[in-house]
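Subject: for your reference before the review

Hello V.,

The reviewers asked for a structural picture of the protein, and I figured it would be easier to keep everything in one thread rather than splitting it across files. Below is the amino acid sequence we used in the manuscript, unchanged from the supplementary table.
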Amino acid sequence: MIITVFGATGKVGKQIVKACLNDGHSVRAYGRNVFTSNFREEPPLALFPGTLFDEEAVFNVLKGSDAVLSAIGGAMDGTDKSRSLGMKNIVHQMERAGVERIINLGGLGILEDPTKVHGELIMDSDNFPLHYYNVAKEHLEAYKYLNSSSLKWTFICAPEIVYEGPTGKYVTAANQQPANNHYHINAGDIALFMVDELQKNEYIRVKVGISN
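And here is what came back from the structure prediction:
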């Protein structure tokens, strides 16, 4: 596959690029700092500098891609709209370029709260940490853009991310946190799941809880 990776220069993004290359895919790494992030640009890795809000740059990196893996980061205080409005542009340009498949990384706050009966979200529970609430709202907006699109999306709702490589040992669940939940996940295991899900397509248009 030809895979476009957004957020490629972040700690999770670098693990995604590595996992894709290890699995034999061609990778288009997109970001503002791709030429200063110790990536070695040689086939099957191509570097595309640009911002998430540049419509033509995003469209150009998507043309001819088979799938998108996204690990967009940003500030936690709600002032940075990269996760939401960046996803809005990605969705628009994917539909324009005819690319259907995307797997996006967000947080566990937008999973369903299992203690409620009416489909409330974890982010709306009384004990959800206040310092995560603004970024959870950004993840929710990104989810809404995906859910209203024609795309074949998967939305990973991760707990605390440990910036380590893959273990190959993780559990997943649709729309809720996994039953065997340790409330953390290695960045490398997020990357492994993304690459595996591209092959299996088990969670099309579904939010996914994940944990080591």
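For the response letter, the relevant points are probably these. The longest strand covers residues 101-107. Residues 82-97 form the longest helix (16 residues).

Happy to draft the paragraph if you're swamped.

O.
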